[in-house]
Structure formats: structure tokens, C-alpha cells
Amino acid sequence: MKILVINCGSSSIKYELFQMEDEMVIAKGLVEKIGTESAIVTYQVTGKEERMETAEILDHREGLNLVLRLLMDEKEGVIKSKNEVTAVGHRVVHGGEYFSKSAIITSEVRQAIRKTIDLAPLHNPPNLLGISAAEQQLPDATHVAVFDTAFHQTMPKRSFLYPLPYVLYTRHKIRRYGFHGTSHKYVSEKAAAFVGKPLSDLKVISAHIGNGASVTAIENGISTDTSMGMTPLEGLMMGTRCGDIDPAIVPYVIAKEDLTLSEIQSMMNKHSGLLGVTGMSSDMREVTEAMEEGNEQAKLAIQMYLYKLRKTIGAYIAAMNGIDILLFTAGVGENSTYVRQEVCNNLSFFGIEIDTTQNNIRSKEVREISTPNSKVKVLVVPTNEELMIAREAKQLVDQS
């Protein structure tokens, strides 16, 4: 069985084609700058060099059509016809309260996704465009929506409700939804398998730290709390997002700086976090290098970043009354030895001890970086959201 996974942005299509018998990626690539005469298309067959070209691609339908032509190319293609694609797994950022698991796409599912556009105005519209384009190009395939928010639908009300008038929840569904759910689910399952225990018997804290970042408390296999909220802006300090701030700051800054609501939303989402404090970069690698060279703003930004991350992890340990596994994943979590070391060094009260040698080893495999004496297993778990989407799609195909 071959499953195509696509992740559509407003002007992009990221894609991977999986052979599900061995869960191997056959080919992958990216279409960027859709809507222009100079869209960039990359295509790579596993084991071969990446191919890149530019083309006029005016919409997602044309972009996906080009992807399929590449996949069926006589010389470099990996399938002979569209019919070899059994299913298409679509990443959908927001499922609201409608979806607690992945779903085969029907008219009712599309309608529910449209109803959540107000909650994810930057993400759900291009996700819907991708669904429409893929259904046109691959009408015989089963199309499956996999939601970033679905994993967190197990949170109890005490975790997901905000202390606002309750009518705002009943009328407008204002609540915590959480994101990165596909990643948190995947890495927690990998972590449980690594330690040889059922996930249902474990208390896990999953730190998905990339340019966007969230921490999730996973108790007995289900999400009980997570740091992102109704939108991905809440929670940790991130690459360009501010995370938690006093909400009274918003009207105060609007008045002082004569900003519109749109401008301050842009400031909090795109010009804050590491970028805002340093004034130079949202990339943890560049900020760390600047700190090592003596840049005081970079040093301050990293101190703030680490403090918020450590504080959130500590809060979730308290909320679950314990922890068995602390795991790090995503770009920063998987690659920054400094961040992992500094976070864990100040969690020693919980019996967490890091093996410096193991922490400095780079690997694409799951690995333990805690010492044998550590009361908590600390793991680095490479995430693979695309594979998780493919698995979810396969499961629904097998059940249908």
C-alpha cells in the first residue's frame, strides 16, 4: 500500500510518499511560492540526489498535478499510475471539538473543518485547498484528515477551560485546544516502546521544541494538559512567538504605540520570542553562537527561553504528581545539546540526572541521555509527523 502525505500551507505543498509495508519513504519534496510564475519545486527519490526546478504554478491544484507528474516520471518516477496511491493523508491544523481522532474526509468533515477556520485562519484554509486539489487529482484514493488538535481532546475541562465567563465557551468554544498533537502522540509511543513499558502505565512529559514549541503532559497514554492554547501563540517562549504574557499588555501597547489589532497580533506571532529579545534571529543555533561570542541580548533570550521551558515542565510534573519519562523532540529538542543540558541541570530536585557524554551524541535514533542513577528516564526522540499521518491513514483504510 502506498500513501501520499501532504501538508499544505498558503503557498506551499510539502509531500512524502510512503510504502506502508516497511513504512519507507519512497519520494518526498516541496512546492513553494505557489501563485507565482517562479514557484520552486523540489523532488527527491530516496537514495538519489534532490532535483529542483522552477515553474509557473498558479494554485494548489496545479502544484499537486506537478507533484504527481514527478512521481510518475518515466526516468525518475516511483509509480506508474495514480491508482497506485491508495490513500492521501492530509495534515489539518485545527479540528476544534469536532474531531478527537483522524477521519476519512466526507462532505460533513469538510464542513466541520470550515467551521474551525476562525480558530486557525492562517492554516485551515490552505489545508482545505490541499484537500480539494488532492481529491480532484486522486479521485479514487481514500482521503484522510489528521488533526494537530485531536490528540489533546482527552484533556479534562479543568485543563482546557479558561477562567472567563462560561458563556464564551458555550457560544464560541473559547478554550485550550493544543497543537503538535500528531508529534506528541508519535514520540510518546516511541518512548514507551524504547523503555519496554506500556504507555498506559507511564507519566510522560513531551517537549516538542522547534521554532514553534509546546510541552504536553501525557498521563496513562492520554494528553491531560498542553502548553499551547486556543491558538499556537500561548505557552512557551518560541522562535518568533511571545508565548504567555499579561493580556493587559495588548491594549496598553496598542495605545502607546498606536498599533492596530492586526499589527499587534503580527508582533506577538512573528516578531517576538527569540527574535524579539535578541533583535537578530529566531534560530536557536544562531542565538546560541551569538551568546558564546558574548552577545548579552542573546544570553538574556536563552535564559528566558530555558526558564519558561523548565518552569512548564516542573508544573506538569506537579500536575501529574510524578514523571517517568521526559523526552525532547523537534528541531531544537533533537539537536541542541545545550538546551537539553541546561533544562535538566535545574530539574535535579526531581531526581533527573543527565549523562553529558550521551547528551552530546548525535543520532537519528531514540536514545537515553540520563544516567543509570536518574530517577527519570530522559530521552531524545526524533519526531516523524508525516509517518504518523501515514499510519493514521492506513488504519482508517484498513478499517473501511
UniProtKB/TrEMBL annotation:
Keyword set, alphabetical order: ATP-binding, Cytoplasm, Kinase, Magnesium, Metal-binding, Nucleotide-binding, Transferase
Main localization, broad class: cytoplasm
Protein name: Acetate kinase
One record GO biological process: acetate metabolic process
Highest taxon of source: Bacteria
Site label Transition state stabilizer, positions: 180, 241
A Pfam short name: Acetate_kinase
Cofactor (UniProt): Mg(2+); Mn(2+)
Organism: Shimazuella alba
Function according to Swiss-Prot or TrEMBL: Catalyzes the formation of acetyl phosphate from acetate and ATP. Can also catalyze the reverse reaction.
Enzyme class: transferase
Subcellular location: Cytoplasm
